[in-house]
Amino acid sequence: MCQFESESCLLVDIGNTAIKWRLGDETNSALIKAFNITQLPKVDKIFVSCVGDCHILDGLNNIHFVKTEHTFKSLKCGYQMPSTLGSDRWLAMLASIERYPQQNLLIIDAGSALTFDLVLTNGKHQGGLIMPGLSVLRRSFAQFSNSTQQVSLGLTANNTEEGWLIGTSQMLMSAINTQIEQHLDNYTDLIVVLTGGDAKMIVLKLHHQVKLHQNLVLEGLSSYAQTYKALHSALV
């Protein structure tokens, strides 16, 4: 929980299609296109992870936008230029290693983008991959485009719409299962952590056991905010 003595603290995760925010133990969300800043509670400090339209918070004060750092606590970013790694992925890794310390971890974030990040027991991020998420796949051909958010698996279909739904589902699930299997070949003790907007429906179709955590970015934000406050208090 992000609470600094008498100072209230709001955590905000801005993605490409949705925004989540947390105050204390209460978490809320909205689609970006339907969001208005009046929905947010009034607080003393706001910590934000933003990989989408950061301007939706224009007009608010006391905002700290989190940027990926090379080293933070026990997490070491594997990117040559840490600033180019999305803060959502970085915070999800931070939350994962705090939930599962000294473990080899594969963190999968299934949202508008499908991302994979490998972190070893020493906290060193090995890098990752980025792929289109299900919604992006479904809109990738104009003549087939639809917004159906469901994973439908099968071998064949007898109409175009169903063929597109099953085909895109197969692509997504095949990519995820393949990545898990390839990493398990190298790390038999691997823990796979799944998060993101599509995580709940994907977990039901996976061939492997995973740890499902819906709000890893907000968890990482909370950890970051607590450490940030402690560091800055020590400097005062």
Shape: globular
| Beta strands, count | 13
Distance between the termini: 23 Å
Q: Would you tell me which CATH topology of the domain at 102-214 applies?
A: Nucleotidyltransferase, domain 5
Tell me the helix content: 25-40%
Mean pLDDT: 91
Strand content: 25-35%
CATH architectural arrangement of the domain at 102-214: 2-Layer Sandwich
Main sheet overview: 6 strands, mixed
CATH superfamily of the domain at 102-214: ATPase, nucleotide binding domain
Q: What is the string of helix and strand elements? A: EEEEEEEEHEEEHHEHEH
Question: CATH top level of the domain at 102-214?
Answer: Alpha Beta
Count of runs of 4 or more consecutive helical residues: 5
Estimated structural class: alpha/beta
What gyration radius follows from the Cα positions, in whole Å? 19 Å
Low-confidence stretches: none
Fold and architecture overview:
By secondary structure, the chain is α/β, with parallel strands linked by helices. The protein has a domain at 102-214: Nucleotidyltransferase, domain 5 (2-Layer Sandwich). The protein has helices at residues 87-99, 134-138, 160-186, 199-203, 216-235, and strands at residues 3-4, 7-14, 18-23, 26-31, 45-50, 63-65, 71-72, 75-76, 105-110, 113-119, 125-132, 191-195, 211-212. Strands 1, 2, 3, 4, 5 and 6 form a 6-stranded mixed β-sheet that branches. The chain has a 5-stranded mixed β-sheet with strand order 11-10-9-12-13, sandwiched between helices. Strands 7-8 form a two-stranded antiparallel ribbon. α1 (87-99) crosses α5 (216-235). The longest helix has 27 residues, at 160-186. The model has no long low-confidence stretch (mean pLDDT 91).
